[in-house]
Design a protein that fits this description.
Blueprint: E1 17-23, E2 33-38, H1 41-52, E3 56-61, E4 79-90, E5 96-112, E6 119-126, H2 135-152, H3 157-167, H4 173-183, H5 188-196, H6 200-216, E7 233-234
Parallel strand pairs: 1-3, 2-7
Antiparallel strand pairs: 1-6, 2-5, 3-4, 4-5, 5-6
Length: 235
């Protein structure tokens, strides 16, 4: 069992090579925590290598059609999220339960051929971009986003309490968009689009559109939100 340790991340120390953990149904965002149950042998090996070194894992989304080549190298969406294993617990059957903290967006440059049983890639870090001379616009977007999210928040005491605490803090618009984007139960493709958008104001506008659709109860939109620590994702 491990606890929170060695969680700092600096771009200067990052060498641009990541272990890839692709899934078809999960998009990780920076600043959030995702529970994972790791049972496939290749991903158990990936985790053990990560724990022995930098604890870094890049969560990537498989593109549609992955089913025909899941055991191989099906295509991935071009933007992933670099995460660090914060805690882990090895089970008697050799599987693991872990908590992965999202750190930063990364763009896949090329996949690396290696002798590992899991996939690796060369990536570049993606920084949030705030439009120039638009501080007032950012403040307005932040308030609109907070108000819209509160309107669609489900009446679940645990979710309400956690979000009340979050919204009461002085966090940046970029962090707010990532946390809300992660929590909203919207189509996985929409989540990937939000992850891939580095312009924070555009990301906020996209989220506002989703929240407005949810508030109107449009077909195809799921208006619920998860708790801050969402359910486990299985590999």
């Amino acid at each position: 069992m491990s606890s929170f340790e060695n969680l700092s991340f600096t771009a200067q120390d990052f060498l641009g090579k990541v272990r890839l953990f692709p899934l078809p149904n999960l998009v990780l965002f920076p600043y959030v925590m995702q529970p994972l149950h790791i049972f496939e042998p290749r991903y158990r090996c990936l985790l053990e290598d990560a724990l022995a070194t930098d604890r870094l894992v890049a969560m990537a989304l498989l593109t549609p059609g992955w089913e025909s080549d899941y055991e191989g190298r099906p295509p991935l969406c071009p933007v992933a999220c670099l995460g660090r294993v914060t805690t882990y617990h090895g089970l008697d059957d050799g599987t693991y339960n872990v908590l992965l903290l999202g750190l930063q967006r990364v763009r896949l440059v090329r996949e690396i051929e290696s002798q590992k049983v899991y996939r690796e890639a060369e990536v570049t870090l993606c920084e949030d971009c705030y439009p120039v001379c638009s501080e007032q616009t950012g403040r307005v977007l932040q308030q609109r986003l907070r108000d819209a999210f509160v309107r669609v928040l489900p009446l679940l005491p645990e979710a309400q309490e956690q979000m009340d605490q979050l919204l009461a803090t002085d966090i940046s618009l970029g962090v707010l968009t990532d946390v809300i984007g992660f929590m909203l139960e919207i189509a996985i493709g929409h989540k990937e689009t939000l992850l891939a958008e580095v312009n924070v104001h555009r990301r906020a506008q996209m989220l506002l559109e989703h929240l407005e659709e949810i508030a109107k109860g449009s077909p195809g939109q799921n208006g619920s939100a998860g708790v801050f620590f969402p359910r486990f994702s299985m590999n």
